[in-house]
Amino acid sequence: MSQPEPRIAPLTPPYPPRIQAQFDRIMRGAPPLVLFRVMAGHSRAWDKFRAGGLLDPGPLSLRQREIVIDRTCALTGCEYEWGVHVAIFAGPAKLTAEEIRATVEGDAASPCWSLAEQALIAAVDALHHLATLSDAEFAALANHYDEAQILEIMLLCGFYRTVSYLANGLRLPLEQIAARFPA
To answer: Where does the pLDDT of residue 59 fall: very low under 50, low under 70, confident under 90, or very high at 90 and above?
Structure first.
């Protein structure tokens, strides 16, 4: 089954030198993702998008960051971004097949998660469904994460909800390298 064309056409090679240099920096030699190619065709949107990126080393571990991103993308039904992150980061983040599946089909009570990760999943779920955290959810997070980490969790949820809006709303075709949601 062929995939739909994106609603906004992505750039095609050869890319302008400035854009090629940015792709090289982001992708480290791999071909640029369709999402990046679409965004880079619109300089204001591309500059704002790149400025909001949260993939640099931050206060969360790679594993924590990826749990937040994967769960956020799963909740928004964004197989495109979920699949890219699972394909690229699940191994380095040491996420097991059971944990990857739980980001889509599980919840905070899934037995594969540690207590700290259960608090993380519960926070992502609350932010997704209610756009806030209850006092109990915030306290559970604070038992395991410091203020900088809690802010990063909220920022990741918001940024990857935006990424999900873009990927879903533009109907981006799934990347060939990307994982697929569990059947």
So the answer is: very high
Contact 102, 151 (CB under 8 A): no
User: What are 147's two structure tokens?
Assistant: 């203020």
The four Cα atoms 89, 90, 95, 101 give a dihedral, to 10 degrees, of 140
Tokens 């990063």 map to which residue? 152
What span, in angstroms and rounded, lies between the C-alpha atoms of 17 and 23? Answer: 10
Residue 8 amino acid letter: I
Structure tokens at 166: 């873009």
Instruction: State the Cα–Cα distance between residues 35 and 52, nearest whole angstrom.
Output: 14
What pLDDT is stored for residue 182 in this prediction?
96
At residue 124, what are phi and psi to the nearest 5 degrees?
Answer: -60, -45
How far apart (Å, rounded) are the C-alpha atoms in residues 107 and 102? 7
Q: CA 131 to CA 137: how far, in whole Å?
A: 12
pLDDT one-digit tens code per residue, 4-40: 789 999 999 999 999 999 999 999 889 999 999 999 9
d(CA 131, CA 127): 4
Give the burial class of 91: count Cβ atoms within 10 A of its Cβ; 0-12 exposed, 13-18 middle, 19 or more buried.
exposed
> Are the beta carbons of 174 and 80 closer than 8 angstroms?
yes
What distance in Å separates the CA atoms of residue 16 and residue 13, rounded to the nearest whole number? Answer: 8
pTM higher than the cut 0.85: yes
